[in-house]
From TrEMBL:
Gene name per UniProt: modA
GO terms assigned for molecular function: metal ion binding; molybdate ion binding
InterPro entries in alphabetical order: ModA, ModA/WtpA
PANTHER family per UniProt: MOLYBDATE-BINDING PERIPLASMIC PROTEIN (PTHR30632), SULFATE-BINDING PROTEIN (PTHR30632:SF0)
Name of the protein this chain belongs to: Molybdate ABC transporter substrate-binding protein
Source organism, top-level taxon: Bacteria
Organism: Campylobacter hyointestinalis subsp. hyointestinalis
Length: 229
């Protein structure tokens, strides 16, 4: 049912006339929507679909999505005909909890830790890499709960359904006042996350304006505010 609704939503965007359709990982909804709102004030119509990056790439293969905002490494392996990238920034992996945590290794004492789905979501992949390289994977066996997206991890943490969760810096910065702890884990223990706009069907004026907006000072300030370096 969710897939049907998602597809219908995309269809309404695609056939909406002079409206640009972009897709993005759910963990980047807040900054991307802030950029879109600025463009709409300038009279430029942009709509966006958000889901885990795997779902976005599947939908892109079925429709006329102009751009996808996500992890370059993941998109390189997606099978999409990508014409190039406009790099936005570098994301980082954060550990969040309602509890006070001094060291990421404290999570071995917890009963349940949420991560985004490592088969479909950027930060699920990076969280898995981190746990393996930090020698925590075996100690946490049976304690990891994989959910669909970064926002779902946040919901599980804030509802105290898990003790902690791994999310991206964007969501961590946006909601840091709601957590007891936000810890940015050692970046050397997972592959870097370069967030870019991948160009798919981006040959018209409206798409060029969107890419120009990504390079503007006001957009750079938005992405920096939400934790992209």
């Amino acid at each position: 049912m969710k897939k049907i609704l998602f597809s219908l939503l995309l269809a309404s965007f695609v056939f909406g006339g002079d409206t640009l359709l972009i897709g993005a990982g759910a963990g980047y909804k807040k900054p991307v929507m802030a950029v879109i709102e600025n463009l709409k004030k300038d009279g430029i119509n942009v709509e966006a679909a958000f889901a885990n990056i795997k779902q976005i790439t599947v939908q892109a293969k079925e429709g006329k999505m102009a751009l996808i905002i996500g992890d370059e490494a993941f998109l390189d392996k997606s099978g999409l005909d990508i014409k190039g990238y406009e790099r936005i920034g570098k994301g980082t992996l954060a550990l969040v909890s309602l509890k006070q945590i001094q060291d990421p290794k404290d999570i071995v004492k917890f009963s349940k830790i949420a991560i985004p789905d490592p088969k479909k979501a950027i930060y699920g992949i990076r969280a898995t890499q981190y746990l393996k390289n930090a020698n925590l994977q075996n100690e946490l066996e049976g304690k990891i709960l994989a959910v669909s997206t970064v926002p779902q991890v946040v919901a599980y943490v804030l509802n105290a359904e898990v003790d902690a969760g791994f999310i991206n810096s964007t969501e961590a910065e946006a909601r840091k006042s709601e957590f007891g702890s936000v810890i940015y884990v050692d970046e050397s223990l997972y592959e870097p996350v370069f967030i870019s706009a991948a160009k798919l069907h981006c040959s018209d004026e409206i798409c060029a304006k969107f890419l120009d907006e990504l390079k503007s000072e006001r957009s750079k300030a938005i992405f920096a505010k939400f934790g992209l370096k």
